Structure formats: C-alpha cells, structure tokens
Known about the structure:
Blueprint: H1 3-18, H2 24-38, H3 41-47, H4 54-65, H5 71-82, H6 88-106, H7 112-124, H8 127-134, H9 140-151, H10 157-168, H11 175-189, E1 192-199, H12 205-219, E2 222-229, E3 237-241, E4 244-247, H13 250-262
Parallel strand pairs: 1-2
Antiparallel strand pairs: 1-3, 3-4
Helix pairs in contact: 1-6, 2-6, 2-10, 3-6, 4-5, 6-10, 6-11, 7-11, 9-10, 10-11
Amino acid sequence: MGSATTQARTATAEALTAASGVDLDVARELFAAVGAVSGSAQLSGALSDSSAPAAARAALVTAVFGSTYRETSVALLRRAAEQRWSNAAEFVDGLEELAVRAAAVADSSADIEGELFQFSRTVASNGELELALGGRLGNASAKSSLISTLLDGRAGAATALIVSSLVQNAHGRRVRALLRRASAIVADQRSSIVATVSTATPLSAEQRTRLENALSARYGSAVTLNTVIDPTVLGGLRVQIADDVIDSSVSTRLAELRHRIAG
Length: 263
C-alpha cells in the first residue's frame, strides 16, 4: 500500500467520524457505490486519477450519485474522491473500508466483530458453502438469500449488510479473508483490537473479564475476544492478536518438553 493511499484512508476515516446522520442506509449506499465503481474501469479510473483536479473528481461523484444517494453518503464519497490514491484498485478498497466503517458506526452497540468471526468459522467448516459464496459464477441475489438464511437470528442488520455486500463484490477474493479484514476494520473503528482465544472448554464470564483486562493492559487498547473451542489445546489458552501469539496451552508445553527430552 502506497503512502498516498495510507493518507487517503486516514482522511476518509476522519471524514466519517465528523459526519452526522450515518445510519445503515448510508452504509448500504456506500456499499452500492463500491459495486458501481468496481464494476466500471472508466469510473474507478476517473475518480482515482490524481492528475485531475480534486474538485473535478468530487463533481463527478455528485454527477453520478447525487440524484439518488443521501447527502451524507454523497459527501463521504466526495471526500474519498478528493484524496490522492496510489491506484484505482486501492481507491475501491478504500471505499469498501469506508462502507464497513459506516456500518460499524450505524450500529455501535452490536457485536459485529463477534458475529463476523462466527460466520467466518461457519464458512471455514463447510467447503461447499465457501464455494457457493465465493464462486465467480454464483447469482448475486441467490448468495444474498443464502446469507440472509444463515444469519437469520444469529446476527444483526449491520453484520448482515457487511457480509452480503462483501460477498456480492468479492471479485475472486476469498470470503474468509474478506470477513477477517472487515472484522479488523470494525475493531479499528471502535478503537479496539481483536484477540482469537483457543481453549479446550468455554471460558466463564469471570475468566473472559480477567483475560480482557489483562490483554487490554498489555496492549493499551480495548480488546474483543473471539473464542474457539479446540479440544487439542488440552488445557490453558492460546491467544492470537494479529501476528502476536501467546501460547500457554498444555499441548504446547508438552510438545516443548518432548522436544527438550529428544535433545
């Protein structure tokens, strides 16, 4: 990712923070804009063309979306188009990130990270489902219906919107990777980090609280726990935050002991 894109992403996120009236309808329109822009090389190229004046790119946004989208949505899209992006693909990724962030803002009390994680686990455990959702030839409306059925009663409207929109605009990207990225974006929008905890048995409420507090103190940020029940852990915990792994599981200690004995 180029430095121009990094700065553009920061400016776009700041615009979202400053915006008012961000609800799920705004997030839905932003996701629809992602589909429109990614589906047109001419439009994505024009909106990300750094050689064109920023005002001209913003005016193009108004011309394309202004008559049908809400004012808040158009203002955010204009702000994104005014930035300098390294290339058209990163501009589209930036719009997608903006849409995910908007969904997180629209439903700030929902456990979107946890719901995305659980759906990702469902996809990972079913190869046919992952193929049905990620296949290039699948019908978009059929995929949306399938997602609605799978998430009914298991996730809120914001999560359903994120999942459905990402799957429909996957363009060959792996569904699990899209869900992981979305979860990280939501956590960042909420100034928290996501920890995946592998344990042999479910954690009690007290254990979760102690672990959250310990990790928050260590990393200096609020922590969201995603728990995986894994009998191979035997006992103890395995915690992963990004590339950082804290492994105090019995299985790991036994493996280390066997390694030392073997010399």
